């Protein structure tokens, strides 16, 4: 499987099944997409910002739900294998992406797996185990949350630094040296994590040094 980042803004994600798994996927996708969850019962209370529809479609009715909602992705998270089978068939027939929660292997074309994710905006890390050990994905996600502390601010800082160096027509090889030296600087990481220095200060210092030294290596 090849990991890709998919933008679901303005798209619909249709989820069948309102148990713990359906709720977890709903919370995940509702951060970006319009999410509709179809289930005869909603045991969980937190579905994020999703629309909940009480219904128990049988296999023959599943396709009608896809026709009405025109989703970009369908999630099969019911405990009924025949319904999950019908969801995969309907999604394939309509060329819609499908995530099946009750299978680890033997996947069909167009099927996607939901990874564990760490988000330090705008940094995103996705973890998968090819379906072998989801509990390990979860464990590694928790571990990485600590490792990535400050990465979002670092990304924002470097983005601004690149833009400002470009605007000052600093040559490409020199921009690369400067950006790399900031990202590898442990004192900058510590400053971002502890909040002792603001990203703006780091950018101003790099640019001031550059203007004084006229582009000599640090
Ligand atoms: C294939 C996949 C399909 C998909 O759902 O996309 C899938 C399938 C299955 N999961 C099962 C079990 C568990 N899943 C979790 C947790 C997560 N599962 C997620 C993804 C995936 N799960 C995809 C593969 C990802 C990969 O490659 O690693 C995560 C990462 C993302 C998310 O769901 O949001 C989320 C952690 C999120 C986080 O915390 O960050 C836990 C842990 C817990 O609940 O505490 C358990 C119990 C422990 C265990 O069994 O490991 C079962 C057996 C059901 C049974 O036995 O009946 C199946 C079906 C099967 O294996 O047949
Ligand atoms: N991918 C993952 O991370 C995991 C997957 N699983 C698998 O995913 C499935 C769902 O897990 P849970 O949420 O824990 O199960 P659950 O049994 O608590 O929830 C299933 C939900 O589906 C609903 N449902 C039943 N028939 C339906 C229909 N025709 N249409 C719409 N909804 C219907 C039920 O009312 C219930 O709310 C399980 O069968 C299990 O095999 C389990 C744990 C983790």
From TrEMBL:
Keywords attached to this entry: NAD, Oxidoreductase, Porphyrin biosynthesis
Q: What is its EC number?
A: 1.3.1.76
**InterPro entries, per database record:** Met8-like, NAD(P)-bd_dom_sf, Sirohaem_synthase_N
Recorded GO MF terms = ferrochelatase activity; precorrin-2 dehydrogenase activity
**Example of a GO biological process term:** siroheme biosynthetic process
What reactions does this protein catalyze?
Answer: precorrin-2 + NAD(+) = sirohydrochlorin + NADH + 2 H(+)
Q: Tell me the enzyme class.
A: oxidoreductase
Q: Does the keyword Transit peptide apply?
A: no
Which top-level group of life is the source organism from?
Archaea
Pathway listed for it? Answer: Porphyrin-containing compound metabolism; siroheme biosynthesis; sirohydrochlorin from precorrin-2: step 1/1
Q: Which Gene3D superfamilies match?
A: NAD(P)-binding Rossmann-like Domain, Siroheme synthase, domain 2
Q: Which NCBIfam families match?
A: cysG_Nterm (TIGR01470)
Q: What is the recorded name of this protein?
A: precorrin-2 dehydrogenase
């Amino acid at each position: 499987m090849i990991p890709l980042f998919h933008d679901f803004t303005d798209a619909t994600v249709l989820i069948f099944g309102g148990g713990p798994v359906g709720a977890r996927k709903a919370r995940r996708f509702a951060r970006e997409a319009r999410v509709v969850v179809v289930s005869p019962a909603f045991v969980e209370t937190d579905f994020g910002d999703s629309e909940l529809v009480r219904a128990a479609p049988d296999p023959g009715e599943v396709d009608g739900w896809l026709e009405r909602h025109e989703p970009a992705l369908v999630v099969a998270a019911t405990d009924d294998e025949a319904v999950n089978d019908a969801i995969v068939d309907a999604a394939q027939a309509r060329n819609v992406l499908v995530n099946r929660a009750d299978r680890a292997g033997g996947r069909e074309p167009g099927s996607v797996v939901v990874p564990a994710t760490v988000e330090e905006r705008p940094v995103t890390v996705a973890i998968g185990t090819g379906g072998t050990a989801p509990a390990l994905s979860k464990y590694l996600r928790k571990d990485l949350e600590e490792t990535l502390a400050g990465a979002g601010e670092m990304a924002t800082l470097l983005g601004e630094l690149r833009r400002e160096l470009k605007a000052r027509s600093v040559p490409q090889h020199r921009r690369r040296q400067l950006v790399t030296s900031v990202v590898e600087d442990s004192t900058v990481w510590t400053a971002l994590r502890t909040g002792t220095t603001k990203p703006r200060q780091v950018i101003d210092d790099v640019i001031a040094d550059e203007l004084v030294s006229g582009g000599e290596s640090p």
